[in-house]
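Box S1 | Example of a co-folding query
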Amino acid sequence: MAAQRIDGKALAQQVLAECGAEVARMVTRGVVPGLAVVLVGDNPASRAYIRNKVRACADVGVRSIVHEFGADTSQAQVIEQVRRLNDDPAIHGILVQLPLPKTLDEAAILAEVVAHKDVDGFHEVNRGALFSGQPRFPPCTPAGMMRMLDSIGVSLTGKHAVVVGRSNTVGKPMALLLLARDATVTLCTSKTVDLASHTRRADVLVVAVGRPGLVNGDMVKPGAIVLDVGINRTAEGKLVGDVDFDSVAQVAAHVTPVPGGVGPMTVAMLVVNTIAAAQ
Ligand code: GUN
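Box S1 (continued) | Returned holo structure for guanine
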């Protein structure tokens, strides 16, 4: 293997240790950061993510509370809960776990979270700030990847970054964060014709589609940095990313593993955003 793995788990622990020190300082001033999570339905992956988020909060001294609702909960009930949390002075950050059940209007619910408690960065005001190059709460997964890039000391100025996947939670905000750091950005989708012709030109390649093995070593430029956002479960129950790690590791300079790569950084950045909201 030529590439170095970027150890997201270790970096997340480092970020959380800094968070713990910051929370300790805040507590001496009488402020305990508080995060509320709203979970609707019983998506097992969402439950696992929330467990990790709650644990990370507990580790650094952030209070967290999970409000759970059944899959048949109405739009009005979810909105009522969000509004209660908006008005609760002990809650500084609110996270509505996605995906919501199909019966609910996701955009309408996310719009209810007041912008200054929107630690996911999904409110239109926060998306607008990111669009203008002045992010207040950058979405956690892209923010975590920017920390990973900083941790390996890469200068992004003038580099060609290729993002595969145009989701509102990862692909689009990641493209904007890279652009804000003067990278030249290509945003591809799973439908891009001749995807490999784009990925092969990437100095930094971000893959966030949700398709195992979408990118292999033949599609990567020698010396590239490859960040894999995919979390897919194989028929055998193994967790794999969107990137074929073994073949890409022969070509790239740096690559993130799955698990233990981008995932832990998403959790750490949620804690960072919650502390920022409380400040
Ligand atoms: N579901 C998958 N990733 C995320 C995330 O970062 N935030 C929320 N709220 N839901 C998610």
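Residues 95-98, 120, 140-141, 169, 266 surround guanine (CB under 6 Å). Residues 69 and 77 are 9 Å apart (CA to CA).
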